[in-house]
Write a structure and sequence with these properties.
It is a single chain. The protein is an alpha/beta fold and 381 residues long. It folds into three domains: 170 residues, P-loop containing nucleotide triphosphate hydrolases (Rossmann fold); 84 residues, Helicase, Ruva Protein, domain 3 (Orthogonal Bundle); 88 residues, Arc Repressor Mutant, subunit A. The protein is built from 16 helices and eight strands. It has a five-stranded parallel sheet with strand order 2-3-4-1-5, with helices on both faces. Strands 6-8-7 form a three-stranded antiparallel sheet. Strand 7 and strand 8 form a beta hairpin. Helix 4 runs parallel beside helix 5. The two termini are 38 Å apart. The structure holds adenosine-5'-diphosphate (ADP) and magnesium ion. The site of adenosine-5'-diphosphate (ADP) has 18 residues, from helix 3 and helix 11.
Length: 381
């Protein structure tokens, strides 16, 4: 028999797994009516052929910023079409397009003026973009709303020149979305003053709100009766602790469902949720470690080796072992301290300064904060 047949016909408690995917935009967004209305209040201007004010949306991960904005986009596109208005809303995720050139090229392409993704000068791309806003033959002006999601990525990577260009193009309105409240420190005062934006803050969801969100989604995603007692409350409570992150709540529910399938169970049990939590945590740490720069990985590997030997890890000892691993490519002793700080910020290690007693000075002692096996798995050592 073909190896795919039994896999495809395997029993599952999912009715439609895509419903739990991050990219799925639900038809209702519980507890976000007010935020949707805030966005609509500014964007509605476009229906009277006025370029809407710029908007800035802040909020922690998983508070529904992307979902709500995309929902508002669909809604505005719908009325614009019905009324035959020349309004375009373009969604750009700055992790995918992270330079001014790439974003403008993408916008030109979406608006029907293809620009090569490399090779032109920036001025050529800027001009092509600006020319899109010359009235067309019917004198119908285009109004463009650009959604820059994860805007902090482009600001860090490429500076604020994209904002400079967009704010200086007539008929363009910017909606920026950021996970960080302080992202504007990356914008120069000159550009900041031309970004006359209205701010909308998305607060974290509380446990009860997450329950409402999960109940709605799970009705569509799972077979009837597939969710055991206490499962949704547990997912919601765990996610409420993680700063009200709806994405995490959905991930927990989805992974719990997968564990139920693995166990050939018709029902998700609370114990599966706890298992799902460990699995997600585990994968998150592996991801972090795998994407560290190579020299950082070497430092982490050195810490792991010393931990396995039960050594007290001082920075001096760490540098010795690190040098052996890094061979010719090593960084300086001073740079090692930056690495230690960064690894500490990521929660992989902790570093405590202790006093060795009078006259003996102070020493940094490093302790690993995750399983050595996990690190070995991630670094494949
Ligand atoms: N109010 C809500 N109702 C239903 N699903 C929601 C709601 N808020 C967020 N979600 C879902 O949670 C996940 C994370 O939301 P997202 O908009 O990506 O968060 P953010 O952009 O703030 O990080 C997505 O799958 C989204 O569909
Ligand atoms: Mg988002």
């Amino acid at each position: 028999m073909n190896i795919f047949i039994p896999l495809k016909n395997k029993k599952t408690i999912f009715k439609s797994k895509e419903i739990l995917d991050h990219r799925f935009i639900p038809e209702t967004l519980p507890h976000r009516d007010e935020k949707l209305k805030s966005i609509a209040k500014y964007w509605v201007e476009a229906l009277s052929k006025i370029t809407p004010q710029d908007i800035t949306i802040y909020g922690k991960t998983g508070t529904g910023k992307t979902a709500v904005t995309l929902f508002a986009k669909q809604q505005l596109e719908e009325v614009a079409k019905e009324n035959d208005l020349n309004i375009r809303i373009e969604y750009i995720r700055c992790t995918d397009f992270n330079t001014e050139y790439q974003i403008l090229a993408r916008l030109c392409q979406q608006l029907g003026k293809p620009v090569p993704y490399r090779g032109w000068t920036k001025a050529e791309v800027v001009n092509t973009f600006r020319n899109l806003f010359n009235s067309n033959m019917l004198g119908e002006d285009l109004i463009l709303i650009v959604i820059l999601d994860e805007i902090d990525v482009i600001l860090k990577n490429d500076g604020d020149s994209i904002l400079y260009t967009l704010t200086r193009t007539d008929n363009v309105s910017i909606t920026s979305i950021s996970n960080y409240v302080d992202f504007k420190r990356f914008i120069k005062p000159k550009v900041k003053s031309s970004l006359r934006d209205r701010e909308i803050v998305f607060p974290p969801y509380n446990a009860q709100q997450l329950i409402d969100i999960l109940e709605e989604r799970s009705r569509l995603a799972f077979n009837e009766g597939a969710i055991g007692p206490g499962v949704i409350s547990l997912c919601s409570a765990l996610a409420a602790k993680e700063e009200g992150d709806a994405r995490y709540a959905l991930d927990l529910l989805k992974t719990s469902g997968e564990i139920a399938d693995e166990n050939e169970s018709d029902i998700i049990l609370e114990s599966y949720v706890n298992e799902a939590k460990d699995r997600i945590e585990h994968n998150k740490i592996i991801d972090i470690i795998m994407t560290l720069p190579l020299q950082q990985q070497k430092v982490l590997e050195a810490i792991t080796i010393l931990t396995q030997k039960n050594e007290e890890i001082t920075s001096g000892l760490l540098y010795e072992v690190y040098q052996k691993l890094a061979k010719n490519d090593k960084v300086s002793y001073r740079r090692l301290f930056d690495f230690i700080n960064e690894l500490e910020m990521l929660g992989l290690i902790s570093a405590n300064t202790i006093s060795r007693g009078r006259g003996k000075g102070r020493t940094n002692i490093i302790t690993l904060q995750c399983d050595t096996e996990l690190i070995e798995q991630a670094l494949m050592v």
